[in-house]
Write a structure and sequence with these properties.
alpha/beta, globular, Rossmann fold
Amino acid sequence: MRPEKTILLLGLGNSLMRDDGIGIHVVNALDPWPYPQQDVRVRDGGTLGLSLLPEVQSCCALIVVDAAMIGATPGSVKTFEGPEMDAQLAGKKHSVHELALSDLMAAAEFMGARPERRALVGVQPEIIDWGLTPTETVAAAMPRILGAVHELVERWRR
């Protein structure tokens, strides 16, 4: 049984690979989280893939923040909701966690537990290479990323 109002915010990526870790950096920037914990759960999903299935099954809505090849200039932010998210995940994979997220959503759908309200906040990376911090271009996108997350949370909480 899903809690009626629980939104799972999942930050994905490898924080050792510069812009690839943007989802993790977003989750860390949201500490302390501005929403009541009973409404929104924040999770550093790293590159955990299918092991996140129980958490996806137990939420009513899902927001994923991740580096994504969206065909835009580095640092661009785009939100993909519902079927748009599914279509984005169905394309060519450019990283291990893109494949893992696609598998995670397919497994949730197979189990009848894919959240109806789901979104991917994708950020076009500039550099995916060894390093602990995102590039300046992607780091400068942080306010837009956080704004996209907050907009989704506020709209879905209504």
